[in-house]
Amino acid sequence: MSFLLATLVVAATPGTGVVYTLSAALSQGQRAGLVAAVGCTLALVPHLVAVGTGLAALLHASPTAFDVVRYVGVGYLLYLAWVTARDRSGLADDPVARPAYRVITSAVLVNLLNPKPVLFLLAFLPQFVSADAPDSTRQLLLHGAVFMLVTLVVFAGYGILAGALRERVLARARLTWRIRQAFAGSFVVLGLSLLFAER
Fold first, then answer.
1. CB of 139 closer than 8 Å to CB of 131
2. What tens digit of pLDDT does each residue of 104-158 get?
3. How many C-beta atoms surround the C-beta of residue 105 within 10 A?
4. Range 70-74, long-range pairs (CB < 8 A, 24+ positions)
5. 57 pLDDT exceeds 70?
6. Which three-class secondary structure state does DSSP give residue 79?
7. Alpha-carbon span 162 to 148, nearest angstrom
């Protein structure tokens, strides 16, 4: 129960994945929000593999490895901010809306190029797994799968809610512009937060 509650709090806390999911849902609708939620969740798979194989410990111990991933992640977040801020279109339905594979690719990259989730999982998951147990690896994988499921459900909820509010937002052009700028600013803030993050 403590693991589920902690996982729920972590998943619900706004971060890069939540911001991207909300942005996708408001700009293209609930389907794009759900696709983004799936992409952000899929990005946890390599993170969990890294935790299970010890690569996360290397990332934690090596300043160079951490910095490489961090700087690439910062660059991608700033790129998203730039693209979002320059977009002059409204949030209305667009015949050339981004295809699902592009939404999911961006969602995966948003979480994958951020070293903070893998370091968080490295610190978080072992607290609920007995290192002395013969099936510790299976326990770690099981907890990781639950973490992913909770993340998917929470992110999908964000996407559905944002998609449901989309029509109201569309009716107000100035609000649409402000929301777009707010998302651009959020990507900048998240990028700067990652830039100055400690290992």
1. no
2. 999 998 888 877 777 777 777 777 777 666 777 788 888 889 999 999 999 999 9
3. 13
4. 70/115, 70/194, 70/195, 70/197, 71/195, 72/113, 73/113, 73/114, 73/115, 73/191, 73/194, 74/191, 74/192, 74/194, 74/195
5. no
6. helix
7. 21
The secondary structure of 102-126 as a DSSP string is HHHHHHHHHHHT-HHHHHHHHHHGG
Instruction: Name the residue ranges covered by the structural domains of the chain.
Output: 2-7+16-195
Q: What crossing angle do the helices spanning 44-53 and 136-170 adopt, rounded to 10°?
A: 160
Give the span between the Cα atoms of 187 and 158, in whole angstroms: 17
Say which amino acid occupies 33.
Answer: G
Please state, in angstroms and rounded to a whole number, the distance separating the CA atoms of residues 130 and 139.
8
* 70/113 Cα distance (integer angstroms): 7
